């Protein structure tokens, strides 16, 4: 549709100082004559777009121009705020000021007040000593970081890492990076990273196709097929934690869940958090581990 093309042209011009009509025509698979008509339409609608001739010439926006309400519909504004609010809920640093600036820029003071998103949970501060911000700087500037790390098996080690990407998954922030200790890609949970140092050493960013991001979970986590049987008293948590297609109703009123999860201390603690409302069916060795931990817990109170 023309309106979508016009909006995308504005976004392109905001990101590039100058672009030629031919480049735009190739991108949108239309004629240069169509592009010239689009530019005229934008100019008539109040967008400060202009064309210059000669070497280095092309289509540009006035330098003072920035995104504003002239190119955003109410639906666009609301979607933008939801996206920013979601990022804010992940505790991403400095995002609150961005939301305020966007609202002010769009001349909508109450734009961000209609939605509130909260992923907060009890636990440690993932950005202690500003480590999240340091990791972000390291990724953007190709700088090596060094830190102590405690994995899910309670093993502590010193890691030197080429940081690649920050990931938000399962209500927690993770770092994907090439670990020089393991000589492979690893995933690190931010809250388990301690004493982080942003070094001055630079590294050449590895190509994503040369790294195994899709299988990074398998590099540090032992994924297992788990079969759990829940009593009806735990139904509210089952619906909170699992997709509907993973839950099966049994004739005796219990519920069965089949899921693939990483086997580690977190998993054992998660199962135990259901108390006597859950029973491990498979695998047998996990059932035995849970039983041993329950016996040890009982011994603490004897």
UniProtKB/TrEMBL annotation:
PROSITE patterns: HTH_DEOR_2, WYL. The keyword Nucleotide-binding does not apply. InterPro entries: CBASS_pafABC_assoc_protein, DeoR_HTH, HTH_11, PafC-like, WCX_dom, WH-like_DNA-bd_sf, WH_DNA-bd_sf, WYL_dom. Pfam families: HTH_11 (PF08279), WCX (PF25583), WYL (PF13280). Residues 2-60 form the HTH deoR-type domain. SMART domains: HTH_DEOR (SM00420). GO terms for molecular function: DNA-binding transcription factor activity. SUPFAM superfamilies: Winged helix' DNA-binding domain. The keyword Zinc does not apply. Keywords: Transcription, Transcription regulation. Gene3D superfamilies: Winged helix-like DNA-binding domain superfamily/Winged helix DNA-binding domain. It comes from the Bacteria. This is YafY family transcriptional regulator. It comes from Romboutsia maritimum.
């Amino acid at each position: 549709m023309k309106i979508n093309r016009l909006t995308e042209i504005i976004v392109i011009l905001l990101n590039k100082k100058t672009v030629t009509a031919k480049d735009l025509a190739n991108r949108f698979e239309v004629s240069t004559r169509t592009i010239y008509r689009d530019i005229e339409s934008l100019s008539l609608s109040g967008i400060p777009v202009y064309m210059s001739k000669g070497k280095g010439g092309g289509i540009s926006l006035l330098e003072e121009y920035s995104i504003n309400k002239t190119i955003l519909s109410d639906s666009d504004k609301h979607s933008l705020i939801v996206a920013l609010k979601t990022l804010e809920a992940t505790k991403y640093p400095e995002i609150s000021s961005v939301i305020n600036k966007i609202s002010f820029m769009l001349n909508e003071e109450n734009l961000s007040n209609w939605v509130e998103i909260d992923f907060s949970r009890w636990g440690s501060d993932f950005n202690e000593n500003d480590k999240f911000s340091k990791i972000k700087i390291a990724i953007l500037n190709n700088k090596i970081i060094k830190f102590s790390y405690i994995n899910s098996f309670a093993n502590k080690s010193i890691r030197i890492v080429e940081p690649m990407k920050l990931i938000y998954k399962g209500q927690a922030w993770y770092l994907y990076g090439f670990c020089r200790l393991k000589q492979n890609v690893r995933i690190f949970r931010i809250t388990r990273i301690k004493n982080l140092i942003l070094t001055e050493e630079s590294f050449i960013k590895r190509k994503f196709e040369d790294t195994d991001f899709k299988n990074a979970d398998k590099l540090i986590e032992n994924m297992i097929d788990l079969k759990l049987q829940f009593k009806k008293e735990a139904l509210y948590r089952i619906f909170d934690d699992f997709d509907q297609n993973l839950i099966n109703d049994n004739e005796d009123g219990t519920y069965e869940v089949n899921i693939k999860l990483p086997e580690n201390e977190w998993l054992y603690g998660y199962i135990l958090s259901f108390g006597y409302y859950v029973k491990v069916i498979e695998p047998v060795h996990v059932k035995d581990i849970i039983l041993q931990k329950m016996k040890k817990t009982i011994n603490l109170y004897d």
